[in-house]
């Protein structure tokens, strides 16, 4: 990627292809990106699209191009940057009301992220594996004791990461219904601006009060360690805790449920999980690639003129990096539209890339490996309790998934 010397150094794509209005409607297989995104990817790795307010945006669909954007800090992650693309008015409201550090650029982003780096080191997460295994075992015990059929989402997939992130953060698990209800509003792209503002205000108020309590009487948890820092305001600590709380349970919960459904569709592949921890690690990487639950893309805005995929991107242009199509790029993952748990999928972008790559990915990986392997080992006869066409998917949510997953065993 280079900066052109003149306006004509790198021409814009001469054939922009059909106009696509974002976000595209979900269609076809629930595990696949919407066909409109796949068609855009087939046309070119960088294509011009239109947003709800009539503004234009570049859709970046190729693996190489998505990595290039996410690795280059001349593409801003700050929602206040001119040209930053928002999929709906609600997403704009969320980004512009005291943003978390994922919506900041360096050096401010780096300052806040460094405060959490040691909390999610691979070694620290590895030390947590026995505790995570106990959470998974206890949760599965409760589900099985109910006799079934059971909703895997509410009785297994959601409690596991919720218990884990509450334990790490120092948030009372008995409040989980409250913060999960507010989180659902924050992640719903159809939510009105006032709904988003209200949910964010409610969660921030809750976490600010908890931060103040931790400052007076700290315990051994992340929020306490943030609360007692002299270089961090209560508001910054609450914003950081809000990000960790929402991301820490929503992403892994939906990934667990959607992975279970994908494996029930592919029972021969599910056997790979039972082979051992090493095989489970490989399987989870492929599931992360194949499902890519952040299907709406990662937004960025160019802060100077740049060339990307043979196209001139102007300063002030918005871009949406489609992780889902990048993870199906045939030049990197041959046969990428198929699930193959023997595949080496380590180059996937499910956790993003560059300085904003998901901080909690070691924890997410450990939770998925333990939860899925335990589930399919202890319940080898696990099956859907309803016809698949009765399932309802989270097509309007930032984090893709299934609303409920009735299962029997």
Q: How would you characterize this protein structure?
A:
- The chain is α+β, with helices and mostly antiparallel strands and 409 residues long.
- The protein has one domain (20-403): Cytochrome P450 (Cytochrome p450), CATH 1.10.630.10.
- It is 46% helix and 9% strand.
- The chain contains 15 helices and eleven strands.
- The strands form three sheets. The chain has a six-stranded mixed sheet.
- The longest helix is centred in the middle third of the chain and has 32 residues, at 234-265.
Protein traits:
409 residues; three-stranded antiparallel beta sheet; Cytochrome p450; six-stranded mixed beta sheet; 9% strand; alpha+beta
Helix amount: 40-55%
- Tally the helices: what do you get? 15
Task: List the quaternary state of the chains.
Answer: single chain
Overall number of structural domains: 1
Number of strands: 11
CATH superfamily assignment?
A: Cytochrome P450
Shape: globular
SSE class: alpha+beta
SSE order in H/E notation?
Answer: EHEEHEHHHEHHHHHHHHEEEEHHEE
**Strand portion, in percent?**
5-15%
Uncertain segments of ≥5 residues (pLDDT<50)?
1-17
Supply the CATH class.
Answer: Mainly Alpha
The average pLDDT value, as a whole number, equals: 90
CATH topology: Cytochrome p450
* Biggest sheet descriptor: 6 strands, mixed
Radius of gyration, rounded? 21 Å
**Spatial separation of the terminal alpha carbons:** 53 Å
Question: In which order are the strands of the major sheet placed?
Answer: 1-2-3-9-6-4
Quickly give the CATH architecture: Orthogonal Bundle
């Amino acid at each position: 990627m280079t900066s052109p010397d003149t306006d004509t150094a790198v021409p814009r794509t001469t054939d922009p292809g059909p106009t696509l209005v974002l976000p595209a409607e979900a269609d076809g297989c629930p595990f696949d990106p919407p066909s409109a995104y796949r068609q855009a990817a087939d046309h070119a790795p960088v294509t011009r699209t239109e947003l709800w307010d009539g503004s234009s945006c570049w859709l970046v669909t190729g693996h190489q191009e998505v990595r290039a954007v996410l690795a280059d800090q001349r593409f801003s992650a700050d929602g206040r940057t001119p040209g930053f693309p928002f999929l709906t008015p609600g997403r704009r409201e969320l980004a512009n009301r005291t943003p978390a550090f994922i919506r900041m650029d360096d050096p401010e982003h780096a300052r806040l992220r460094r405060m959490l780096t040691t909390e999610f080191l691979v070694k620290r997460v590895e030390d947590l594996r026995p505790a995570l295994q106990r959470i998974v075992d206890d949760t599965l015990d409760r589900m099985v004791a109910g006799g079934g059929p059971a909703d895997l989402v509410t009785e297994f997939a959601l409690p596991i990461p919720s218990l884990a992130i509450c334990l790490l953060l120092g948030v009372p698990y008995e409040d989980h219904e409250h913060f999960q209800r507010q989180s659902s509003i924050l992640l719903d792209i159809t939510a009105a601006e006032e709904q988003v503002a209200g949910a964010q205000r409610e969660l921030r108020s809750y976490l600010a009060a908890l931060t103040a309590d931790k400052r007076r009487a700290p315990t051994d948890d992340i929020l306490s360690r943030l609360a007692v820092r002299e270089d961090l305001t209560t508001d910054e600590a609450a914003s950081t805790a809000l990000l960790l709380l929402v991301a820490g349970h929503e992403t892994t919960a939906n990934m667990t449920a959607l992975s279970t459904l994908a494996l029930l569709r592919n029972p021969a592949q599910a056997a790979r999980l039972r082979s051992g921890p090493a095989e489970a690690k490989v399987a989870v990487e492929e599931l992360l690639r194949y499902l890519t639950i952040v299907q709406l893309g990662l937004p960025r805005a160019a802060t100077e003129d740049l060339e990307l995929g043979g196209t001139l991107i102007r300063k002030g242009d918005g871009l949406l990096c489609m992780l889902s199509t990048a993870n199906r790029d045939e030049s990197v993952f041959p046969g990428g539209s198929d699930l193959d748990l023997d595949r080496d999928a380590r180059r996937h972008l499910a956790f993003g890339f560059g300085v904003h790559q998901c901080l909690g990915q070691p924890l997410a990986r450990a939770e998925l490996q333990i939860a899925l392997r335990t589930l399919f080992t202890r319940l080898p006869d696990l099956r859907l309790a309803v016809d698949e066409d009765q399932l309802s998917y989270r097509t309007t949510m930032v984090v893709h998934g299934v609303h409920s997953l009735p299962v029997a065993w």
